[in-house]
Amino acid sequence: MINRLIFSFLFSVIFSFFASASSEAPNASSSDDTAAQAKPSSHSEANTRVTSHDVHSKTFDPVGLIMHHIADANEFHVLGHTSMPLPVIIYNRDKKNWFTTMSSAFHAHHGEGTVDVHGYKMEQSRIHPLDGSQIIDFSITKNVFGMLLGLILLLIVFFLVSRAYSNRENEVPKGFQSLMEPLIQFVAHDIAKENIGKNYLKFVPFLVCIFFFILMNNLLGLIPIFPGSANISGNISFTFALGFLAFIMINVFAKKDYWGHIFVMPGVPKALLLILTPIEVMGIFIKPIALMLRLFGNITGGHIAILSIASMVFILGNVGKSIGGSIGGGVIAIPLLIFVNAMELFVAFLQAYVFTLLTSIFIGIAQEEHAHADHH
Amino acid sequence: MILLFDPISLITPDIGYTFWTLLAFVIFWIIAGKYAVKPIVSSIEARNQKIEDELLSAQKARQEFEQLKLQNDDLLKSAREERQVMLLEAKKDADSFRSAEMAKSKEDATRLLEQAKSEIENQKRAAINEVKKELGTISIGIAEKLVREKLTDSASQQSLVTKLVNESLSSN
């Protein structure tokens, strides 16, 4: 126990020393994509936008850093100057045409800054039209890239596990299979069967898939280095899509009694129905919206918490000007970071569970068939 | 401080990303749902069913075995009792047979002894009579020789001797 404390203390000191030393180096400060983004240029030259990287006047902007991380991006920043180029696919609604390129096309060939391509500029790692026309960005963004990576991993995992079942039929689960079985069994049995009832088997593939899809993307977001780190599931679009599918699964397969309870609640005076029916109708939409906002808030909140704590090193260190301050910040921040990361690991599982559980509860309500409708 | 990001954009669903999420999830749902989740869940169910069945049948077999054992024990116990009874009977039979045999042989022995005794008695009596007869003859001879000079009438003499011999026999 004491050894661990000493180790983590030393680790914090070393980490913060390197962190402050690297941000002190004149090149490194601008090399950090996020730091560079913290103070983009307000002045633009004819074709080339140069982000300012005046080391000495630079101040650390944690809000900019965090929000830049939370948001999606058209390129995937790996390390230092290196960004992974991603395909840009844009539909211009005003011009009614498609525009495709690679995100690397927006980078100036020499030195810093970005260039404009075909009437589009890159700002904050996102593509914007120069003329202000409406666009729909179908690009493989950082989040989409992370999600597709997650999809491939999930398909591999499920392929291996299902193969294990067909190869070793009726045998004791082994290896990876024994890790997945309790989870699948948990979702299928303790979440779906418990809450939905006799029709549960129809919804099991959806619920298992949504559980693992959310879990995998939550976990990928927690990995702090390149293939991970994208805030995939902490994005309102992501949770909106899943909430929308949950909405469909709840309502499309709903039984007659469900609609009966919404529009004409049995056993309630007619006058009350004037209030109750609109509330119930709103409830149809509020349920998936709550699912959407809960997942978004939890994952985004986790990312913000982790980045805020990590920012402490730079704030207290005054961006490398005070080694002592950054060491102090590191000593405080690193144990907290470890703690919050562990919490987030738990939250990644918890939110996947909560989303799946609530979806199956709502499906269960919609599947319920009352023998005596006037019992209520 | 100027905010460099648009906070509203953070909570506005983006059509592109929503599209990709839907696409990725639906692909996952179709492929994994059909080719992995369904077979996995059904094979877990099947395995659980099999385990349950096997547990039940094992329990049943154990019960049957228990019952068999009980029956066996009963059988053994009754067999043991029967053996005891048989042994006792056999002993009793043997005892009675032996005592009967012994009584019979004793009887035989006594009978033989009796026979022997009466034979001996008879023989003895015959021998004594013979001896007496012989003795009388010898005595008569002696007396004849003694009284020949004194007695002429031998017939009266003879009757006297017989009378004397009989007297002596009956007194004997």
Using only CA atoms, what is the Rg of chain A? 25 Å
Task: Please report which band the strand proportion of chain A falls in: under 5%, 5-15%, 15-25%, 25-35%, 35-45% or over 45%.
Answer: 5-15%
| Strand line-up in the sheet with most strands of chain A | 5-4-9
Oligomer, anyone?
heterodimer
The topology string of helices and strands of chain A comes to HHHEHEEEEEEEEHHHHHHH
Low-confidence spans of chain A: pLDDT under 50, at least 5 residues?
21-57
On the 0 to 100 scale, the average pLDDT of chain B is 86
- Distance from N terminus to C terminus of chain B (CA atoms, Å) equals 176 Å
Average residue pLDDT of chain A: 80
What is the overall silhouette of chain B? rod-shaped
Structural class of chain B comes to mainly alpha
Largest interface: A-B, 59 and 39 residues
Helix share bin of chain B? over 70%
Order of helices and strands of chain B: HHH
Could you tell me the number of beta strands of chain A? 9
Number of domains of chain A: 2
Low-confidence stretches of chain B at least 5 residues in length (pLDDT < 50)?
none
Tally of separate domains of chain B: 1
- Summarize the main sheet of chain B: none
Kindly, what is the distance between the CA atoms of the first and last residues of chain A, rounded to a whole number of angstroms? 58 Å
Count of alpha and pi helical runs of chain B: 3
What can you see in these coordinates?
The complex is a heterodimer of chains A (376) and B (172). Helices cover 60% and strands 9% of the residues of chain A. Chain A is built from eleven helices and nine strands. Chain A has helices at residues 2-24, 26-31, 33-38, 62-70, 142-167, 176-196, 204-222, 236-252, 256-263, 270-316, 323-367; strands spanning 48-49, 76-79, 82-84, 87-92, 97-102, 114-115, 120-123, 126-129, 135-137. In chain A, helix 1 crosses helix 11 (323-367). The relative contact order of chain A is 0.12. Mean pLDDT of chain A is 80; it is low at 21-57. Chain B has one domain (20-171). In chain B, helix 2 (15-147) packs antiparallel against helix 3. Chains A and B meet through helix 4, helix 5, helix 6, helix 7 and helix 8 of A and helix 2 of B.
